[in-house]
Amino acid sequence: MSPAAGLTTASDVAAGLRDAAAAFGALASDGPMLRYAALVDVAGRPDDLPLAIELVYEGYLLHYRQSRALAPGCPDATLLLAGDYFYAHGLRLVARSGDIGAVALLTRLMGACSFLRVQQAGFGTDDDLWELTALAVGAGDGPCRAAAAGAFDALDELIAAGRMAGLPAAAAAGLNAVRACVAETQEA
Question: Is 0.70 surpassed by the pTM of this model?
Fold first, then answer.
């Protein structure tokens, strides 16, 4: 694949993750399983958007879960530094495309997930927020982005009111709203 062709296949995205991880130590023996690349790999969207979303997700995994790209046993300081690098590299790719709305959604996602980790909430809420963000980023500017922003607004209101128990339901409702929006958009 020529560099000008972008990163459009799953193997290209996985290779991009491995390349980014190589500077931080031993690579995982299995290739990274992609989680959200397909949700943003939409005609008319930047070719490197699937890599960008997977880089940001890998940054999240390095900070809060288990890396798909680095082998187990890396020192905590390495994982933290690698996580920061993956976040920044992914956001840079999105920003380079000029899609500031996508950058804004991804930063809201990162902030919400950080808050959820401090609260020791279940990871299912994070997963719902990741999916709704990936779907909205893939959809581009428009009503699906507005639905995702509305989901984050609802979370912010619950947090401000101290109603943490309502966060999982709000995230699930937001995901359902974005899924419905994407489905309607694809039918049109």
Answer: yes
